[in-house]
Amino acid sequence: MTPRTSKFARTRLFVVATLAAASTLTACVNSAQPQAELSGSPTVSASATATPSPTPTAAYKPADAEGKAENVPIPVLPEAAKANSKEGVEAFARYWFQALSYAYETGDTEHWSPKTASQCVFCVSLKNGLDSGYSKGRWLVGGKMTTPSIRALYKPEAPSQQVEIQTIQDRIDYFEADGSISQPPTPPSNSATVMIAVFESGSWKVSDLGLIR
Amino acid sequence: MPVLVLAVSLVAPVEDAAATQDDPVSAGFQKRGIEVTARWIRDPQSGEFIPAPPNHVSDDPNQYKADLQCQVDDNALDKKCLPGQAQCPPREPGGKPGTPVIWKVAPKEIPNPTWTDWKSGNSGPSCLYDQKPEDVLPRIAARIESDFRNLPIKPADLTAQPSPHTLKGAETNIFADALEQQFDVTILGQRVHIVATPVEYTYAYGDGNSLGPTPFAGGPVPEEQWGQKTRTSYVYQQTGDFQLSVTTTFRGTYSVNGGPNMPIPGTGQFASPSQKVSVWRSITRNYADNCIVNPQGEGCPGAPPK
């Protein structure tokens, strides 16, 4: 990118920020960080001004020692994950871990929990860990999850399906509401996980989860 | 005062609930799974995953490799990377410096896995000291099994209760006591740390019978319980002297220059010195009087030898 286009983009972004100021104060604060906005595509910001929507996409900020993550993109259940097929359950498994990763970043399990059965002991334990990590103003830094390998052992007639997943998690740091460190960090992990998923009334749900070891 | 007691009983349960919810706990994915022992294994027959049985002893679920730091292809080093890389100074004056490596870890179960950096506890740089550092780990791997079997691993201490004399037809408690042992050796110029762990025991009773291999080492029982059946007790059916022995199976892990603990393939068998057990028969006879009343009675000091 030449310096000239960069300057041009900044000018247009300023328009975005001014418009946003009319809507909400938080949006204004976020848009006031040109670094975060510039890393994205300036053309997208320009088209945002053209749309009638009053709320432009606020900048994503990961959590750090200063505070919680902001404007974390909410994972979307893809259409493919609604099919009762090998590809369907694999797409669902990918989404489920995106929703879990979102919960690690935000403490918000409301997207993840509806896709998780309460008899899944491991899942309940995960939720307890997250609830503890975000109670009383605490927050986590890190913990992002990725699933580079997902492979379903799909059997069309089986009541439940097994998915073998490589689950990688970044290191987690724990902070108290006052910014102090609440407990030692959890080192990164790289594990093989099995998910047991059940397809009921048009959607997948996790009934059990385990580490393969 | 009754009011105070009432107040305490009301408050206590609330405090308990708050404590369990508010205690900071590790939220790590893998850590939570290990804590609730959500362990699964692949059933070799069906290829499907099943919950691991409670007595399942899991091997290390990971595999490891060491990448040369700054290496971009077989012989070219990334020049820009070199200034920032870990330093591996010579280990003795006049020696050659080592080659820094980055250890990688991935779950064994996943085909073509994504590798992530392995971090040691003291996270110093890992270095290899060899002319061809990329070859030294495979060469160690090729010989570690036989090196392990030749280690001076101390076999189990073997005990029989009662001993050295026991009774035919009675439960003789036999147990092995073996310890985890650590060794620091030099293999192909690398410092290799080996941990040997006893995993199984094979008891030979000297009368042609044996037990095992079994994971049970057994343990001592108090004298008043001698003769009771234990998981490793044995009943001799004949009298005589028998050579009792135990062979302990050790498994090992090895770590090269501070790298991860990697499993040593196979096992090592280490026999304890055998010990003599004399098995006697006992005869119970009832008498109406004692040796004072009848000094000639059987078993009394004044009795004639039989």
Give an overview of the whole structure.
The complex is a heterodimer of chains A (213) and B (306). Chain A has 213 residues and is α+β, with helices and mostly antiparallel strands. Chain A folds into 2 domains: 3-50, no CATH class; 79-211, Nuclear Transport Factor 2, Chain: A, CATH 3.10.450. Chain A has 6 helices and 7 strands; from the N terminus they run ααααααβββββββ. In chain A, β4 (172-175) and β5 (181-186) form a beta hairpin. Chain A is globular, with a radius of gyration of 20 Å. Mean pLDDT of chain A is 80; it is low at 1-53. Chain B has 306 residues and is of the alpha+beta class. Among the domains of chain B are: 40-129, no CATH class; 157-280, Sandwich (Immunoglobulin-like), CATH 2.60.40. Chain B is elongated and about 100 Å long. At the A-B interface, α6, β2, β3, β5 and β6 of A face α2, β1, β4 and β5 of B. β7 (203-212) of chain A pairs parallel with β1 (39-42) of chain B.
CATH architecture of the domain at 157-280 in chain B: Sandwich
Q: Show unreliable segments of chain A.
A: 1-53
What fraction strand of chain A? 15-25%
Helical percentage of chain A: 25-40%
Structural domain count of chain A: 2
**What name does the CATH topology of the largest domain in chain A carry?**
Nuclear Transport Factor 2, Chain: A
General shape of chain B? elongated
- Shape type of chain A: globular
The greatest interface between two protein chains, and residues involved on each side, is: A-B, 47 and 43 residues
Which class of secondary structure composition applies to the elements of chain B?
Answer: alpha+beta
Question: Count the strands of chain A?
Answer: 7
CATH class type of the largest domain in chain A: Alpha Beta
Q: What is the CA-atom radius of gyration of chain B, in angstroms?
A: 30 Å
Helix vs. strand class of chain A: alpha+beta
Main sheet: strands, sense, barrel of chain A: 4 strands, antiparallel
Oligomer, anyone?
Answer: heterodimer
